[in-house]
Amino acid sequence: TPSDVTAAAAAIRGSVIVTECDQSRTLSEICGCNLWLKFENLQFTSTFKERGALNRLLALSPDERQRGVIAMSAGNHAQGVAYHANRLGIPATIVMPVGTPMVKIENTRRHGAEIIISGTLEECGEFAIAHGKVKNLTMIHPYDDPLIIAGQGTIALEMLASAPQLDTLVVPIGGGGLISGIAVA
């Protein structure tokens, strides 16, 4: 709900950057409209995925925090979970597919996560769920989680605060967490 997105914004405030939302004169001229860009690449891990990951991690019980979390990702969600789990003292295991760029693996490992390389992204998801159950870890899904969705939706709140005249938001779609959160906001 919109109140979930507002609550997420309050929860993550001070731990993620309120990134710039600026008008692009060049793209505005090319497209014949006033076009604004949100610079989520300025987050510590260079991705919006930190927002949802942090919001979900903050909702863990003390027992869940102590046991740790597991996630599957080819890179951006992995880094967001690993970075904020490390900051919060939560053990993190990240399952990444074969073929993940080494820089994403190393960046994730640098944040203190245990890395498991296993199969395709779909197979990683299956493995993460099974391994998480065996190890009693909490799954931090990259998009199919209301708290992840609410965290991603905080982007829209910031955009509308910066440029209240916006009438259309163009949002990339992968798993659907970003578009879902923005649509709710």
Structural overview:
The protein is built from nine helices and six strands; from the N terminus they run αβαβααβαβαβαβαα. It is of the alpha/beta class. Strand 4 (92-96), helix 6 (102-110) and strand 5 form a beta-alpha-beta unit.
Please name the defining characteristics of this protein.
single chain, 185 residues, alpha/beta, 52% helix, 11% strand
Give the arrangement of secondary structure elements.
Layout lengths: L1 H11 L8 E3 L1 H7 L4 E3 L10 H10 L3 H6 L1 E4 L3 H13 L3 E5 L5 H9 L3 E4 L3 H15 L2 E2 L6 H17 L14 H8 L1
Parallel strand pairs: 3-4, 3-6, 4-5
Antiparallel strand pairs: 1-2
One letter per element, helices H and strands E, the order comes to HEHEHHEHEHEHEHH
Shape: globular
- What's the main sheet like? 4 strands, parallel
Using only C-alpha atoms, the radius of gyration works out to: 17 Å
Strand numbers in spatial order across the main sheet: 5-4-3-6
Give the overall pLDDT as a whole number.
Answer: 96
Low-confidence stretches: none
Q: Into which percent range does the helicity of residues fall?
A: 40-55%
Q: State the end-to-end distance.
A: 8 Å
Strand content: 5-15%
How many β strands by DSSP?
Answer: 6
Note the total helix count.
9
Task: Please state the structural category.
Answer: alpha/beta
